[in-house]
């Protein structure tokens, strides 16, 4: 064990990424960990505002692989890991048109080979499941019946609870103001409360990862936060929606899903912006309503119950950034999760812990997500 100010590893950020890494490092025996979270509670930003679903389909190969790996953990977590089930297999229905549908059909054999259950649906099948859609808007669809809604809060706190049980420490309301470097490698961090020493600092700060990056000087890693808007509204009178799967129309940028006693919807907007406590943009709200009117007119809300926004952070190639910085030794990236942070967290946390403890992993080819790809470019 280290002193009050010296640790084997310091994790910046206690969203789903930082929490999952703390858990897997603790499982590997590295228990002298400090997690620094700038907010009053873990998971306040992206983790707490996401729709929180497992969708084992993606056009970025590394993200798809991580989703499939993460899904195995969500369906079958270790004994005693969580108090409640992590995944409700409510199903995910995704509709496509034109070339996008052609591309998805070519992916289906590979998905099935990877263990993903994929049902190809006709227009009639879709309309029997979701009677508000129009068959003119899509050429085909897939149903992922073993995917669905993740209890993100249960997952987050299970990571934290198990990591703390093994000795990890969590400091809330403690923002990082600087990173100490000695001869080109990390030696600690500075916060409003003081200084902590560690040879390993992990940047798991979500939308703030680019800001933390500035503390280490030159690095080729680039990240951009993007805002996404979500609204909730009442289900149409007389329409039973609670058993619908989440439905997404990827050709027209819209998804909707049952939510509590009503519905949730998003225009799948991606507006680049500086890291902040994101607020919904009225244009994003208007886009959601307009797309519902256009593609599912019977769902178009008369009023909105709630609206919010969250930030999803991407690298230019849309793949995650996991591994040691190409320039600064001891500075480890756990960033760029985009919209897949919750569903992939178990896989990414395990891979990151392997890289930190062993310097390698057998789980996947990490060249696709390594920060070194930016140096090579």
SSE blueprint:
Layout: E1 9-12, H1 16-27, E2 33-36, H2 46-49, E3 53-54, H3 61-75, E4 87-88, E5 92-96, H4 98-113, E6 119-121, H5 123-129, E7 140-144, E8 148-150, H6 152-165, E9 169-171, E10 176-182, E11 185-191, E12 194-197, E13 201-203, H7 209-213, E14 224-234, E15 246-249, E16 254-259, E17 262-266, E18 271-272, H8 282-295, E19 306-314, E20 321-324, E21 331-335, H9 341-358, H10 372-376
Parallel strand pairs: 1-2, 1-13, 2-9, 5-15, 13-21
Antiparallel strand pairs: 3-8, 4-8, 5-7, 6-7, 10-11, 11-12, 14-17, 14-18, 14-19, 15-16, 16-17, 20-21
Helix pairs in contact: 1-6, 1-9, 3-9
Give a verbal description of the structure.
There is one protein chain. The chain is an alpha+beta fold and 377 residues long. The protein contains ten helices and 21 strands. Strand 11 and strand 12 form a beta hairpin. The mean pLDDT is 95.
Averaged pLDDT: 95
What fold name goes in the CATH topology slot of the largest domain?
A: FAD/NAD(P)-binding domain
Largest sheet: 9 strands, mixed
Percent helix, as a range, is 25-40%
Beta content comes to 25-35%
CATH superfamily grouping of the largest domain: FAD/NAD(P)-binding domain
Number of DSSP helical runs: 10
Which stretches of 5+ consecutive residues score pLDDT under 50? none
How is this structure best summarized?
The chain is built from 10 helices and 21 strands.
Descriptive key words:
6-stranded mixed sheet; alpha+beta; 2 domains; 9-stranded mixed sheet; 377 residues; 29% helix; 10 helices; FAD/NAD(P)-binding domain; 21 strands
